[in-house]
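Can't paste images in this forum, so I'm doing it all in text. The chain is below; anyone willing to post the predicted structure tokens underneath?
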Amino acid sequence: MISISQGSLTYGEKTILSELNLNIKKGECVVVCGESGSGKSSLIRVLNGLVPELYDGQISGEFKSLTHQLPTEQFNDYVKEIGVVFQNPKTQFFMNDVYSELAFVMENYGYSREEMIGRIETISKSFNLSNFWNRKMTELSGGEKQRVAFASACMISHELFLLDEPSSNLDEKNIDILTDYLIWLKNNKQTILIAEHRLYYLLPIVDRFILMKNGRIVGNYTKQELLTYSDQELSCLGLRTLRKPQINLIEKIDTLNKSTNQLRCENLVYAYQKEKPIIEMSEMLLQSNSVTGLIGENGAGKTTLSHLLTGLLKPTAGSIFYNGKKQSRKDLIKKSFLVMQDVNFQLFFETVEKEITAKAKRLDLFEMVVETLQLDSLLDRHPQTLSGGEKQRVAIASAVLSGKEIIILDEPTSGLDLVHMNEVSLMIKKLNTFDIIFLIISHDKEFINRSCHQIIELSKK
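Text version of the structure:
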């Protein structure tokens, strides 16, 4: 099904993949894991034909997928045979509403109206998307967009599925839904290749784990082999736990005799136009002496709340206070820094160093931040050439060096491996002594456990 012999990929003078040898049989499920920047996404890009069709890389060695030698001259025929889910789901959306997006790929290949309607109903039932048909794509949460992206990839039958971090931004409920559908694909003898950092949810379907480092394959483990490893042994490989994480918060820092900054909300309400309020909160208190985690289902309003707290949205009702003083939107914008789910929206400069220093007010922290987040080797790189996890670390570095008093991280571990997740957590712990208010929006319980002292849970209205 997939055969790679001495496969390599270069971008200009930089080697991204080197001397890969890998065979994947029909019906097999293989998970590619390893550190951010190890080459996982680049391997997916070669196999889905986007290199060199979209990304101008040079391929050497032999890459075979299905009946095609890659890069293929029959690109349009090849992509019809594969289902693809990207790390950033928005990059594969074309339509304004969910129903049209689900129909889009079938319309392109000339399916009849009856076939499209039937398939949309079937897939929507599996992904619990029927209530989303009339929703605009721009109104969906990050996790909801991820579900739509995966459902769209399943609208027509494929022999091969290539998935790049499909659990990114999904809550526990939707990860369970994703697992169920992957089981369905596996039972139908589909071949599945997944690049992923979260591993526990894939145990019901995975046959092998391929470990990558610095563009090379350094390990090839059966599921049974990797299950014999302890969490400590997995950590030494740079891998996350194979056990489903549970919330177990770190102890609160002793802050007696320490003055703390406070951000308080009273009777906060927000509704989109004339719709039912998505946020209704009688009171919420965030303090600089403790890191707060914000959890809740996809679509519960977590990102909306972050936009209210940073002044990007105006509340429908209620007030926000900082150290007892009522804040305007302008006040909140000056005091806060939001690291978005999609960090591509906030990367503007031509080098990483310029990106993190251009508006920095805490350059005294530069060396500590660069060392902790392992950005030394990336300082001269263009931010848009980085992997998803590397971009995430750059955005977090920008937030830390900004000198802002309120920092909100929206799904900061999207694309981060275990090593870099721990680095970000360590950074937050260090900065917790600087009187910064931290709010972390995340479905990642491993990260919540390492970083947060208290939890606020939003429920879906």
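The chain has two domains: 2-236, 262-458. The first strand starts at residue 2 and ends at 11.
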